[in-house]
Amino acid sequence: xxxxHETPPGWSAEQPxxxxxxxxxxxxxxxxxxxxxxxxxxxPYGQQGYGYMPPPALRPGIIPLxxxxxxxxxxxxxxxxxxxxxxxxxxxxxxAAVAAVPVSIGQALTLSSIGDLLDDPTxxxxxxxxxxxxxxxxxxxxxxxxxxAVTILTGILIRILGRAVFGGKITAGEAxxxxxxxxxxxxxxxxxxxxxxxxPAIPMAVIFYAAASSGEPLAALGLGLLFMLFYIGYALFINxxxxxxxxxxxxxxxxxxxxxxxxxxxxxxDFWRVFGILVLTMIIAWLVSMIISFPFGLIAGIVSVFGxxxxxxxxxxxxxxxxxxxxxxMITYPLQAGVAGLLYTDRRMRSEAFDLVLQTAALxxxxxxWVHATADELWHPSNARRx
Length: 387
Description:
Blueprint: H1 70-83, H2 85-119, H3 124-164, H4 172-179, H5 183-198, H6 201-213, H7 217-241, H8 245-252, H9 256-268, H10 271-307, H11 311-352, H12 354-368
Helix pairs in contact: 1-11, 2-3, 2-10, 2-11, 3-4, 3-5, 3-8, 3-11, 5-9, 6-7, 7-10, 8-9, 10-11
């Protein structure tokens, strides 16, 4: 039956031909170019379709202004060193050298006494007694100097980091002028945390001594192992909970107790993540220090053995050890301070939406074309937002 339309060759009445656009030529068969494909409408505004790429985070300085991942924290720490190497590495080298000199002298004297023992085994008792004195006394002195110097250095590096987040630079002298008034609070935090760490050591030492003096070595050994496990966990817990106190002292201008409370609250929201990053950083710092200082220690040992305890060999050994220790600490000090500062920044972003504050300030500074010193005031807790 015909309805006025002709059926093209090759098509039956039950299978109608495809739609043909007006004016398109007909070649006697299906013409793919004549098909009209429906075009899907665009997705409604605000919806993320397939292949949508969010805009990159604003990054005026060493980190993107959004919550940070592990890679962002380490990358930002490296960029902190590279963006201001004179201030960061220069100050770290000075502090590391001051702390390394006493312990290097003690190690040199100990190696010299070992060289004497190799030449004259009969002098072993006197040499060993002198070796203990020369080893531990300089180590104690070096530890005290190191703790004091590192406390101040940490504050200075965090102040440099606070400006580097916005892409600004600060000289070592300017950083010291800004941190000088915060040094007493930094030492307050240090001694309070140290006291908390040492508190359980006193009763545990008394119990251990009582068990050892009772004539039961197995009980004393068991108590000693339990004490070590407990004490290591306790020390790591305290160190993690108050790891962000120094940044709070420097960047927010808080006192020691206020800064410790601030750190406790910030870390409490994500304790295990902060704990893991800090432990990983300590391991990395130890490995870097060992890798850098190992060749110098090997050279010092060779010089000590072949120098036969001479004054010149002792001086050479002390210099070599001091150089190796300084180079290792010059890298590890900024690493640990940078990670602490960026962890503090990350925790404020996650718990206080602080990234919005930083983004707004960074856009304004980009519009002006420079980073003003007033950027330091943005770290004040009054700028915190509660999401």
